[in-house]
Design brief:
By secondary structure, this protein is an alpha/beta fold. Helix content is about 25%, strand content about 20%. The strands form two sheets. Strands 1-2-6-3-7 form a five-stranded mixed β-sheet. Helix 4 crosses helix 5. The chain is globular. It starts with 7 loop residues before the first helix and ends with a helix. The model has no long low-confidence stretch (mean pLDDT about 85). Pfam families: Peptidase_S10 (PF00450). This is Carboxypeptidase. Its EC number is 3.4.16.-. Keywords: Carboxypeptidase, Glycoprotein, Hydrolase, Protease, Signal.
């Protein structure tokens, strides 16, 4: 396995096109059709080297003005990949562990951001025990920082309608980020 693709240094240096190129996901093995997507890590707390993993799918209908959805899994502490592969993402994992395209997926009509949240969930990680959040305000601050950098890279979606949708405890995170952001 390689090193995590930390995008923040490139973002800070204004290397936006390089971020887009580096984060573009290649063809997945044994998947019948490639779905354009982007993935990597965004540093949300430099002091503790806290990084959030995301996987972003632009809408399949090529409508650049389609709404953007930030999906927040429940738990707290459940990976967004659960919903990506089980509920509404473009892929479904079968019993034999093969991957197929989902017939009905949110990304047909919407741009969807899946992010492992809070730090320490799924592929998101921190370099310090102090980097783990201890309350919902800290979760919201990390998500807000994530979104600020995300929309620097994928700027063409920054003026679209934006929806934060969460399952179970993810709904609590949604409410908190609305308190700290200007959305």
């Amino acid at each position: 396995a390689g090193q995590p693709l930390i995008l923040t240094p490139y973002i800070e240096n204004g290397q936006i096109e390089q971020v887009r190129s580096l984060s573009k996901v290649g063809r997945l093995p044994r998947v019948p059709r490639n779905i354009p997507s982007y993935s990597g890590y965004i540093t949300v707390n430099k002091t503790h080297n806290s990084n959030m993993f995301f996987w972003f799918f632009p809408a399949m209908n090529n409508n650049t003005k389609a709404p953007v959805i930030l999906w927040l899994e429940g738990g707290p502490g459940a990976s967004d990949l659960l919903s990506l592969f089980v509920l509404h993402g473009p892929y479904i994992v079968l019993e034999d562990r093969s991957i197929e395209l989902r017939k009905y997926t949110w990304i047909k009509e919407f741009h969807v951001i899946y992010v492992d949240n809070p730090v320490g969930t799924g592929f998101s990680f921190t370099g310090s025990e102090d980097g783990y959040v201890t309350n919902q305000d800290e979760v919201a601050e990390d998500l807000y920082e994530f979104l600020q950098q995300f929309f620097q890279v994928y700027y063409e979606y920054s003026q679209n309608d934006f929806y934060i949708i969460g399952e179970s405890y993810g709904g609590n995170f949604r409410n908190q980020i609305l308190n700290v952001s200007a959305f």
